[in-house]
């Protein structure tokens, strides 16, 4: 068994992400969720908020930790001694991007293997961006994100609305 990293933006974490983490955590010794640090202008939640929400959602999994990283995922993997990169694959949308990324990562680091887990059927059309999009238009999609995420999401949307009205 190995140590693995599950990298992503997770803006915010959804039930699809948590499902991947739960399943991956049963197949490796230790899993680090790597929350990529990007300019907070490009995300709804800053990196600390994204880490906090993900950490709360996987607090029941003893061999999972959540950390931020910057730069190349393969470098982040090496830094924490992970030999596996975990990715989630939705059947229709992810194959091309994920296979290109895996091949590029392999080119840079042959010792780090990418392992893709297929998304569960109920999460195939779930993405952070779709959740934000429909929630902003007033839909209640609280059943698609962990319990601790819905409150902060609604709060952010209200803040945005208030600042765009000013
Ligand atoms: P990225 O910025 O890398 O696309 P995301 O936070 O969108 O980050 O996703 C991180 C990983 O989780 C990716 O491998 C993505 O394909 C996977 N993923 C996203 N949504 C789902 C889902 N609903 N079910 C399974 N995997 C998912």
Report on this model:
The chain is built from 6 helices and 5 strands, in the order βαβαβαβαβαα. The chain has about 170 residues and is an alpha/beta fold. It has a single domain, classed as Rossmann fold (3-Layer(aba) Sandwich). α2 links the parallel β2 and β3. The protein is globular, with a radius of gyration of 16 Å. It binds adenosine-5'-diphosphate (ADP). Adenosine-5'-diphosphate binds next to α1 and β4. Adenosine-5'-diphosphate (ADP) binds next to α1 and β4.
How would you sum up this structure in a few lines?
By secondary structure, this protein is α/β, with parallel strands linked by helices. The protein is built from six helices and five strands, in the order βαβαβαβαβαα. Strands 3-2-1-4-5 form a five-stranded parallel β-sheet, with helices on both faces.
């Amino acid at each position: 068994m190995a140590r693995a990293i599950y990298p992503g933006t997770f803006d915010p974490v959804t039930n699809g992400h948590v499902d991947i983490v739960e399943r991956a955590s049963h197949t490796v010794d230790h899993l680090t969720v790597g929350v990529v640090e990007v300019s907070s202008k490009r995300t709804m939640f800053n990196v600390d908020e994204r880490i906090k929400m993900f950490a709360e959602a996987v607090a029941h999994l003893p061999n999972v930790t959540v950390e931020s990283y910057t730069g190349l995922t393969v470098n982040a993997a090496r830094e924490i001694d992970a030999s596996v990169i975990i990715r989630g694959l939705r059947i229709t949308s992810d194959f091309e991007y994920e296979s290109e990324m895996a091949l590029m990562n392999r080119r840079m680091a042959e010792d780090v293997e990418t392992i893709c887990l297929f998304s569960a059927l109920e999460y195939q059309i779930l993405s952070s961006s779709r959740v934000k999009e429909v929630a902003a238009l007033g839909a209640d999609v609280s059943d698609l994100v962990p319990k601790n995420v819905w409150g902060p999401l609604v709060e952010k949307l209200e803040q945005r609305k208030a600042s765009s009205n000013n």
